[in-house]
Predict the structure.
Amino acid sequence: MDTKGAIRSLSCGALLATWATLAGAAEFDGPVVRVLDGDTLEVLNNHHPERIRLSGIGCPENRQAYGQNAKYAASALAFGKDVTIQMHGHDKYTSTLGDVILSDGMNLNQELVKQGWCWWYRKAIDAAQESLYNEHARSPPRPNSMDLETIRRISLARHLFELGNTTLRSSNDLHLFATANLLQDAVEAFLIAVGDHVGAKIDQHTAFDKYFVSINDRIKPKELPFKARLLRLNLIRVAAKHHGIQPARDECNRVAISVREFFDEVSTSLLGVPFATVSALDLLDEGEIKQLLLEAKACRETNDLKGCVINCRKVIFLAVERNYDIAMFKDGEPRGLLDAFSSAPFYARNKEYIDKYVCDPTDFIVLDHSKVDQELLTQGIDTTTFWNIRRLTPEVYRTGDKEWIIQHDFAKLDGGFLADKADYVFSTTVDVLLARQTAKNAVKYKNQGSYQMKLARGNVPVYRKADTI
């Protein structure tokens, strides 16, 4: 039989599997002397470093989301250790393709898949190994593993989309030019975020239509939906922006619906959450405030908008307002420690003020607006955003027994009002808390502790250092 003809008749997948089988016998031993990224190492072979590309898998690049995490995971497992390289040929960059086997028999390629730091390529894995990779493979990273930049880009996409819908509702046809550009920018921001999340190679030189190719290559066998409609949006934007051709209103309406459906479907299938609720919430530290925000998020997802905004206001109470609670002064003026902990204005810290002005429990909160603004600015929080949240949500109060009291303001809890404001309240509340946490974590304190000095012998005089004049 003609060998060359037989090889030509093999499919790409069968050829790779055959190659892996034939080349599997070629191997060498050596220490790992360098880890370049999650799937690329350098191993000494006869005293010379040889670059090894882990066969059958792909990790995010170092500059991409979780690229550094994948690199650290590979380093922790293999750096400085003696390994066996089972060679499977070379890639297009002349790096050796291979499986890295640790001294305890662990397959590094499979372990990185198992830990969720990379993807595996079905065509590059032979049939005998496929079940192992299927067993270890995980779904793409969930929102709690998204980095802040990815989350912010998705939030930007949502903001641009909302602006596009606002201009679309205008009766002025000139606003349709803005609609086309805003919708296109929203889609691009979203695709870049998703691309980073799944490790697709997208940069400033990538053409819009190639976004789909790069991402689809990383999420196989899945594919991004609505490709044809979104490419049509790109053409509308180009015609409007570069040639001054006014978009048709009917077409803009159809495209806007497609964009929203695209966002919802991809967010659910690849990110695991509805598009409307992707936020920096998952980056917050565990605690009561995060739990309340999780409850607000759950309310939003079940369309309980009233519960969503009430929980957001509870968060604002715990984060800021409770520091201005004057209930401790209702029986007189506390002195010392309790008084020092209050941020309320001095004029309100007395029984006379409380008797005269406090009619409802929520009246126990007396804000010093200047002090609040100063605190917010110090933490990098937009003051307008904070006061907007307070204006759009009902007042709440928590008693000393941790019982919540809600002021049921009909104007703020009306269904029509909430439909327009709930998403804004939720997303901005999360932003405020994340900024507050970031500022808090940036503050460094010296370690506190007590120290003892053990004397070598008894009756040794010990003197305190004299004061400096």
User: Anything to note?
Assistant: The mean pLDDT is 81. Residues 385 and 428 are 7 Å apart (CA to CA).
